[in-house]
Amino acid sequence: MTYSLNSTLLLTILLAIGLFFFLRASSKDRTTIVEITSCQKPIEVLKVMYEWLNLRGWNQTGGDFDQRILIFKGQVVSSKFLAIFLGLLGGLGSCALGLVIIQIYPTLGWWPILLGLIGGPLSGMIYFRKSAREEKFELRLISSEDNEEMTLIRLRAHRDELISLENELRDRLKLKSDGSLFKTPI
């Protein structure tokens, strides 16, 4: 094999590895726990958060009064556009791999190009099925009843949802957290 063929094969394999890890990351559980505080009364904070969650499509499915827990569930919908785009990228990448295989083994003829018919739809379907799932949002009031002026809440939910909550309700509820949501995990 020539040098250019080796480098093309390597880049094509790296492309396939990148697609695999993107598909894996799109379905990864990113549930995070964060504690937030507010200088407003617990009932006011809970009321605003309850309304905000309902507006975003979360439905209350349970809770425990003794442990002060509210549980909400919501359905995450896959992006059809992204599924089609990944299917297209997977198809083009598989065709590129087929072209490299043809260069290495010319006796196979044009058959390796048919990898594009397998790789494209397969990557789009994998993304579409794995990224659609039910998510849970758990809200636990930590504040004691004798501390009516300070609210401490522990939230357990998807990282992106917690970032949205903090961004949208920070000023309205005077929320404070440790800022760990806005740090990159790398």
UniProtKB/TrEMBL annotation:
Source superkingdom: Bacteria
Does the keyword section mention Transmembrane helix? yes
Q: Where are the transmembrane segments?
A: 6-23, 81-104, 110-128
Q: Does the keyword Plastid apply?
A: no
**Which keywords appear in this protein's UniProt record, sorted alphabetically?**
Membrane, Transmembrane, Transmembrane helix
Xref: InterPro entries: CCB1
Please state what the protein is called.
Cofactor assembly of complex C subunit B
